[in-house]
From TrEMBL:
SUPFAM superfamilies: S-adenosyl-L-methionine-dependent methyltransferases. InterPro entries: Methyltransf_25, SAM-dependent_MTases_sf. CDD domains: AdoMet_MTases. It comes from the Bacteria. It holds the Pfam family Methyltransf_25. One of its GO terms (molecular function) is methyltransferase activity. Keywords: Methyltransferase, Transferase. This is Methyltransferase domain-containing protein. Residues 54-127 form the Methyltransferase domain.
Length: 307
């Protein structure tokens, strides 16, 4: 792959949709986890009836947005990739679609009077990137540290704080965030560390920053945080599809890694260890499911029949 192919899996909606394996957790696909949260909070959807203002950050081509859109009277999707936003806009022609990185988008929305205006803010598998970019930037020619670590922490804290500030009364922040301890992410971590170490505590640093930031918002009385960690699998059709998922999806077609025979061999060996009798590759995966409910007071945690 050429330098022009760097990060193609997240610039081209077609490439993304081709390489992405389905992810299952306890018999439920990741998209259906989000659908279940929406049903629990808002009930079975009647298209447009809920009349919600919904923001999907890092929306990609709109894969998860599909289960949010039926509840929305005002839908806004944002992504730093023009290709992804084009596909999102084509799928949801009535929605607002914005090209921009999450840090800039959140700051711009807050600066333009949108604090406290969204019923639902979503981010699905994408929030690790803007948080990591507070400390380092990755391009086709390498990984580069940006600024001092303390300044990076402050940037990350502003992003997380901004997410909760966008929520209106009783608004809901719903997120899926990769689990760094899964076998899948442990392999990805070891491969990327051939290029550069991760900041802070390592691969889990962005998760720790997110969780700590939302716990801080809870302590300030701005809402109630629930998180759960689910174990599951990403299912690749065969060894070649598993290799593509790692090379394009996880390693971003980064030339120094994907052109390294040792890296490819390590991925293939991992896939072989997790190949089933039917030839499919069951990649051990893990996800943190995050639900922050704005405006929840202590009494809201009591049983509904309590007085």
């Amino acid at each position: 792959m050429s330098l022009e192919s760097f990060n193609i899996g997240y610039r081209s909606a077609e490439t993304y949709e081709t390489m992405l394996p389905p992810h299952f957790y306890g018999g439920v696909e990741d998209v259906d986890i989000v659908a279940g949260i929406m049903r629990d909070v808002y009930g079975p959807h009647v298209p447009g009836a809920a009349g919600l203002r919904i923001l999907d950050l890092g929306c990609g081509p709109g894969r998860v947005t599909e289960v949010l859109a039926p509840y929305a009277s005002d839908l806004h999707g944002t992504d730093k990739s023009e290709g992804m936003v084009r596909q999102f806009a084509a799928t949801f022609p009535g929605a607002k679609a914005t090209v921009g990185d999450t840090e800039s988008v959140v700051a711009a929305l807050l600066g333009s009077g949108h604090a406290g205006t969204y019923d639902v803010v979503g981010s699905f598998w994408s929030m690790s990137y803007p948080l990591l970019e507070c400390f380092e930037e990755t391009g086709a020619d390498g990984v580069f540290v940006v600024g001092e670590r303390d300044a990076g922490v402050q940037r990350a804290e502003r992003i997380v704080d901004g997410l909760t500030r966008l929520l209106g009364e009783n608004g809901n922040l719903v997120m899926m965030f990769f689990d760094a301890s899964s076998a899948e992410q442990q392999l990805v971590t070891s491969l990327w560390e051939r290029v550069a170490p991760f900041p802070g505590t390592g691969r889990d640093y962005t998760w720790r920053l997110l969780e700590e930031g939302l716990q801080g918002a809870e302590r300030k009385g701005r809402g109630s945080l629930t998180t759960s960690r689910l174990s599951g699998v990403a299912v690749a059709a065969d060894a070649a599809a598993a290799r593509d998922w790692f090379l394009i999806g996880h390693l971003n077609s980064f030339p120094d890694l994907i052109n390294d025979p040792e890296v490819v061999a390590e991925i293939d060996e991992f896939a072989a260890r997790h190949t089933g009798a039917d030839g499919r590759v069951f990649i051990p995966s893990g996800v943190h499911v995050v639900h922050f409910r704005a405006g929840k007071g202590p009494a809201d945690h009591l049983p509904s029949a309590a007085e």
